[in-house]
Amino acid sequence: MKRSEINQILREAKDFLASRQCVLPEWAEWSLADWKANRQKVDYIVERMLGWDITDFGSGDFLRCGLFLFTIRNGKYGVDKKPYAEKIMIVEENQETPMHFHWSKMEDIINRGGGNLVIELYNADKDEQFADTPVHYRIDGIEHVMEPGGKVILHPGQSICMEQYLYHRFYGEPGKGKVMVGEVSQCNDDNTDNHFYNPVGRFPEIEEDEAPLHLLCSDYGKFLV
Questions:
Q1: Considering only CA atoms, which of 213, 207, 209, 210 is closest in space to residue 56?
Q2: d(Cα 32, Cα 24) in Å, to the nearest integer?
């Protein structure tokens, strides 16, 4: 992805979050100079990869296959006492996050407002392929069951619990507008705990055609060494 594209996605995301009265930590607005000036104070943020996160999953087409995220809080397994994480995400109409599951993390996906979120589900079998077994899941604590590959539509205010080894793929329902999505989960580790059904790139290779508006969490190792 080009840095100019990432910067534009950031601007549009900030406008959308503001329209939904979603306020982020003050350091979300920091420039590169601000990060460098505070470098000795931010190890906790850097090591837990808090902050802005934009990916096209290697597709080269963010609006078709991509995701905007901001990690607000996150613990680190085996390091600190915090056992939970929280993210805010933006999903465009028909913008796919590819089919995947997590080995360690259980998560709640929450439609925080805007359009509807469509989620397709499969159980994973012992070989980490799609199982042909019925999928049991809960919407806001209410039990449901459906055939493998079925679709759940989360309306604003609804949430679904994703247990480990539950394959899920999601996108915004066409014609309903972009979706502000929340995630509350166990500790998040995007480097080791994502299993995609078809391998993809989680963090983008960035062409630096202009200066970053804000650093992504995947930028910290490059700019804050």
A1: 207
A2: 17
In sequence order, the 6+-apart residues with CB closer than 8 A to the CB of 12 are none
Q: CA torsion 56→58→59→62, rounded to 10°?
A: 10
Residues 195-205, mean pLDDT to the nearest whole number: 95
* pLDDT tens-digit series, residues 11-53: 999 999 999 999 999 999 999 999 999 999 999 999 999 999 9
Task: Strand 166-172: give its sheet, edge to edge.
Answer: 151-154, 117-123, 166-172, 97-101, 195-196
Determine what percent of the chain is predicted with pLDDT higher than 70: 100
Residues 6+ apart with CB under 8 A from 37: none
Q: Which residue has the tokens 């900030």?
A: 14
Q: Are 196 and 96 in contact (CB under 8 A)?
A: no
